[in-house]
Amino acid sequence: MRQSRAEKAKTHERILEVASERIREQGLDRPAVAEIMQAAGLTHGGFYKHFGSRDELIAEATERAVAASDRHLHKLTDDARDPLAAFVDWYLSAEHRDDPGAGCAVAALRGDGRLRSAYREQVERYLENVEHFLGGGEDARRRAILAVSALAGAIVLSRAVDDEALSDEIPSAASEGISGLR
Q: Tens digit of pLDDT for each residue in 62-80?
């Protein structure tokens, strides 16, 4: 029995949602198509009704992860009294560290071609926002690059270590350093 267009679109979205979460959790190379399809409640055989290749799925899921990161940034900062502090506090939080599947795509994604383009676009959006949060100035771009690098590096390192105290200490130190960039 054939799926309606609406059902096919809904299934496509479900596959992308699972893939987006998995690549943020595991990186680009790890989640297999069969694993993604199973997590989406589908069979491996239905994959090619939605995507021409695994690379196509990963590229589309990466774009989805990047867009979600951007929406989350604005949700946190648009009405915040101190947008930079709101962004830094969330980004370096234990909640963000401990939930990479729903976290920042920048801290998880690597790749080439279409992926690098999506990644560059998100980094540029972060830089633009952080420049604004820092209040501009002649060296705002340099300070924003330093802040975004510290944010991504701190969350990657705090996720990587097996010592909870150190895992908490890394984001705390990064937050303190970033606040000194104003």
A: 888 888 888 999 999 999 9
Considering the entire predicted model, what is its pTM? Answer: 0.73
- Total residues belonging to the chain: 182
Q: Which long-range contacts (CB under 8 A, 24 or more apart) does 36-45 make?
A: 40/11, 40/14, 40/15, 41/14, 42/11, 42/14, 42/15
pLDDT < 50 positions in the chain? none
Q: Are 88 and 179 in contact (CB under 8 A)?
A: yes
- In angstroms, the Cα distances linking 50 to 27, 64, 117 are 22, 16, 22
Amino acid at 170: I
What is the structure's pLDDT at 2? Answer: 66
Signed CA dihedral, 148, 149, 152, 154: sign only: negative
Rg (CA), the chain: 18
Ordered by where they begin, the domains of the chain are 5-179 (1.10.357.10)
CA distances 21 to 3, 64, 109, 131, Å, are 25, 10, 11, 28
